Amino acid sequence: MTIGRLDANAVISEFPATRPDSCPFDPDRAYAELRANDPVSLVRCPAGMDAWLVSRYQDIREVLSDQRLSSRAAGSDHMLPSYEEHDPIPGFITQLDGEEHARLRRLLVGEFTVRRMEALRPYIQRITDEHIDAMLAGTGADLVRDFALPIPSMVICEMLGVPYADHEMFQLASEVLMSFDATDADRAEADHRLESYLGALIGQRLIEPRDDLLSRLIARGNGTDRPLAVGELATLAKLVLVAGHDSTANMIALSMLLLLENPDRTAALRADPSLIDAAVEELLRYLSVIQFGLIRYATEDVTVGDVEVKSGEWIIAATPSGNRDESMFPDPDALDFDRRGRRHLAFGFGAHACIGQQLARIEMRIALSTLLRRIPDLRLATPPKESDFKRNNIVYGLQKMRVTW
Ligand code: HEM
């Protein structure tokens, strides 16, 4: 047994963050080796902290459901070279623990039920068709700008009550917040811009409530013994706005690229459109776009696999590795729409599991199946360049994707 960092033989490696050039859809090849031989291994993160990297599926589920592990640096602060520990930020749902977290989650979950999301289907189908009509009026398009990004952006604007006319501002600010290449000053500026924008909208809803999520969050908060402060609500709304469009947009475009590179899988999907639900689950597993895993902090001593992690040490649940764990997914590097069940870790697991997962699923199913049906000869106009891949972002994806038909 390894005893925390006290083990003199502990080897500290660099955090594995390099995708193979030969396959931009696969995680770092080091994960396969780690799962086999060193499933809870010590790594040094770009943020400077050392962390226990957990690479096996079952261990990851245990980590993500362990209440003794804090989310104080989630989503991927371990990748941020300028990371500094700070007090919890009110409203920052992904980084809060215990009752502070549960209080915000209770306010949100009722908005994202399967029933509510299913009711959005006609709207999602209509905007998907409209964007395909607009693309078909020309001879080529950027699938990111003209399709993958606008659809989830419009849906989350509609839900929240944010004017879609402001999409350029919030998409650009989100992109800066998601990128590890942005400077600290740019990141702070983008953060401030989004929060003051949402703060102003919240101010309007306080005076004149509407039938939207912002107004309902105000009303629901007021119905509790701790109403939400405007700043707290602006931070929460910012996370919903950013998480609500960015990851799904990246999944739609990257999935399409993967499908175009796997014509046999695409043909199977066209021949049997009922495969779409299973295909979306498999694409989520295979692509694992939250590419650097989920970081946690031990507030007590815990045992993970064979390792005793000490209070005060960091742990990374390497979800991209867990999603390729051969003990859970036979032949894990194959894209196989016949896998059954939704056991992948793409939406996380446990107390912080993705609130928007049903929405993301419906958006992906409608966007991908409608695109395949309505543009059967869709193909790449030019292959993506190396610089088009978001290798240094919290969420993996494509900056642009030129297509034609
Ligand atoms: C394919 C698209 C998506 C992926 C891959 C994804 C992935 C994730 C993951 C892995 C987490 C867990 C983070 C952690 O444990 O530290 C998460 C949390 C979250 N997601 Fe998503 N997400 C997606 C779409 C969405 C959408 C459409 C929304 C809409 C609002 C959303 C809202 C959230 C929120 C609010 C949380 C925080 C939950 C909490 O801390 O309790 N996500 N997401």
From TrEMBL:
An example molecular function term from Gene Ontology annotations: heme binding
InterPro entries linked: Cyt_P450, Cyt_P450_B, Cyt_P450_CS, Cyt_P450_sf
Entry's transmembrane regions: none
CDD domains in UniProt: CYP105-like (cd11030)
Name of a matching Pfam family: p450
Domain of life: Bacteria
Family that this chain belongs to: Belongs to the cytochrome P450 family.
Name of the protein in its database record: Cytochrome P450
Species of origin: Streptomyces paludis
Organism classification: Bacteria, Bacillati, Actinomycetota, Actinomycetes, Kitasatosporales
